[in-house]
Amino acid sequence: MNYIVFDLELTCWEGDMAGRFQEIIEIGAYKIDPYGHIQSQFSKFVKPVMYPILSPFCSKLTSITQEMITQAKPFKQVIKEFMDWAEIDIEPHYLIAWGDKDLDYLKADCLLHKIDTEWISSYTDLKKQYQKVKKLYEPKGLKHATESEGLEFEGTLHRAIDDAYNLTRIFTKYFGEWNLHKIN
């Protein structure tokens, strides 16, 4: 069993994004073994196809530059590398992210690129799980949750690999307390 703790960064614009398809531009993830230990990490940029030019807002928010994206591989290639790294076809797995939006964006990008989404069926929203474990009235953002645990947020907020790392720290701290489930 592998636990794949991941985060995505997406194309974005200031103000109303209605009618604009947000594509994945970065995937950051950590593979956790059945004992709660980090095994490896995955970090790749993705070249978007619908909106290949990043907005100034997106670059400022994520610190991802146009050059990083221009030099990146297309989604189809990066997601195959991600699936190979995560051993999706070899080991049972759970995908774990902070909130349910990453699941939606991952599925949407897979559908856009005609990639089967069955492998995404084991997914847990750790934001909701954290709210239950900590008995919080309302959910907290990742940075707030990290700091609430007495941990300093490490890295740059809104960078997938850094957000995934901080999420991994919370996940492993309460390893064994999460109610992981399969969704279909």
How would you state the average pLDDT, rounded?
93
- Major sheet description: 6 strands, mixed
Fold-level CATH name: Nucleotidyltransferase, domain 5
Proper CATH architecture = 2-Layer Sandwich
Topology:
Blueprint lengths: L1 E9 L13 E9 L5 E10 L8 H7 L3 H5 L2 E2 H12 L6 E5 L3 H12 L10 E3 H8 L8 H7 L11 H14 L11
Parallel strand pairs: 1-5, 3-4, 5-6
Antiparallel strand pairs: 1-2, 2-3
Helix pairs in contact: 6-7
Spell out the key features of this protein.
184 residues, alpha/beta, Nucleotidyltransferase, domain 5, six-stranded mixed sheet, 7 helices, 6 strands, globular
What does this structure look like?
By secondary structure, this protein is α/β, with parallel strands linked by helices. The chain has one domain: Nucleotidyltransferase, domain 5 (2-Layer Sandwich). 35% of the residues lie in helices and 21% in strands. The protein is built from seven helices and six strands. It has helices spanning 56-62, 66-70, 75-86, 101-112, 126-133, 142-148, 160-173; strands at 2-10, 24-32, 38-47, 73-74, 93-97, 123-125. Strands 4-3-2-1-5-6 form a six-stranded mixed β-sheet. Helix 6 (142-148) crosses helix 7. The chain is globular. The model has no long low-confidence stretch (mean pLDDT 93).
Could you provide a short overview of the structure?
The chain has helices spanning 56-62, 66-70, 75-86, 101-112, 126-133, 142-148, 160-173, and strands at 2-10, 24-32, 38-47, 73-74, 93-97, 123-125.
